[in-house]
Design brief:
There is one protein chain. A 6-stranded mixed beta sheet has the order 4-3-5-2-1-6. 63% of the residues lie in helices and 6% in strands. Helix 2 (16-51) packs antiparallel against helix 5 (174-203) and helix 11 runs antiparallel to helix 12 (340-372). It has helices at 2-10, 16-51, 113-116, 123-126, 174-203, 206-218, 223-256, 275-296, 298-302, 304-309, 326-334, 340-372, 376-387, 389-393, 397-409, 420-454, 456-464, 469-503, 513-543, and strands at 66-76, 79-88, 109-111, 133-134, 147-151, 162-164. By secondary structure, the protein is of the alpha/beta class.
Amino acid sequence: MTGLGLRFVRRPGPGGRAANLAALGATAVVSLLVTFLIAGSLGLVHRSDRIGWRSADKADPATAIGAINQDDDQLVDGLPMLRLDLATLRTNELPPPPGLDRTPRPGEVFVSPELAKRWSSLSKQYGVEQPTGVISDKGLSSPEELILIRGVAPSAVGEHPQYVASWRENVMDSRMVGLRIAVSFGIALVLFPLLSLVGQAAGVAAKRREHRLAALRLAGATRTQVLRLSAVEQAVLGLGGAVVGLIGYTVLTPLIARIPLGGGRWFVHDITVSWWNVLVVLAAVPVLSVISALIGLGRVSITPLGVVRGQTRKATSALRLGLLVIGPIVLAYYGMQAAVVPLLIGIGMAALAVRVIGPWAVQVIGKTLANLANGPVALLAGRRLADDPKGAFRPVAALVLSGFVTGFISVFMPGENEDPSYQDMRIGVALLLALVFLTVAASTAAGAVGTALDQAGPARALRRSGVPLSVIERSARLSAVVPVIGVGLPVVGFGALCGLALSGGKILTQGSSGAFLLLGQIVVGLVLVAVAGAAGAPVLRKASAN
């Protein structure tokens, strides 16, 4: 079966090449985003390892080897500068602070490279014509950091200094701690749109693959052989997409390093993928793709005759609605003062509820649309939604889940403030939304191709029976728009409800940024669906012509 699976990849048959390219592209985006999330999280750790010692303050003053006093009120050329006064309290042979070749003696001044370029405006203030030395990358938060480390006498370190037992204490920088918590929430919010993209990549032209494998089952292939054949085919596409995604991330790394999050731009080596990062992506992405593909082919392995006959799928249950209450209850119970893990569980349960309930909602909308139809367009669209709600929801799942994300975030949008933490929040929200909408765009594009190929068989039969092509195309567009409006808009409200549950019923957004975000979500969603419909129309027209 391995050889046959590879043959299906090389010669996929009518429409198969477009399906494989769509799946490969979607998987590549998954790989790129997973790599970004892993490398970015590790970048925060690398940055904190270099500057965490500045926050150390746990040593006993009676035994401390040194003291630190920080001053971040000074400006240089309109930019904030950090000054650290270091005093050696006891003679020691311990390593100097990161980035320095020795511990500063009283009167010595070490500066960052960017501050060295501006030293002419500071030389008179600090009484030295030139700095004693330049801090290397190993002691800097970012390439553009403006920092001055000055050696002072113990009596000049200030009234309430930070006492340290070592110049290289393993302490997590407070700003990095906040960012890591924010990143955890961001990953939880983007996880389900990302998993939906994985499912979409594996489900491109799902019906075409179902019919092909069902024919093999009816010809005598065992269930295990069919599943193995599908696994081989999807693993090859998943591995190819993972490689493309890793290459794409490597190419984009210099641009990603320019994101000014957490105190400035990044050193490229902070966010460069490591060898184990590459191995994780090359293993995880194909495995997730294979699992998603096998889950979607359960019906083939059990009822191949039903697939060939086009038998209607079993209706989804309304009991799924009970899942909607779990996430908000968890978030409301713990509130914003809780530990990170319970809140992540609450967000995850809420997003999972949306993903599980989505097909049921599509089925209800489809039946309603078909019953109220006063023409062939609405009737065809309604019957498709009602007969295959999972297949209809899959292409728009990431878009619907992005509505949950924007609804949730709209409650917490930060306002204009010069505080660094607010700046990090604004950049973080923009970055999160960029990741989500990239996921949505890739999923929508793959879904456009997959949906067109899935509808090719019924569309061909309709054309042979005399139904105009324009009616078929309009019904396809309607069946794509209805789930977005009928399910997506309520999900935006559900996301906002979860945000209010977490905040205790308070809208923490300042100004009208939350309203603009919600409006942007609606506009982007409709535009993506319209573009996807326009892109899928030629594929449907060609695939249903023969």
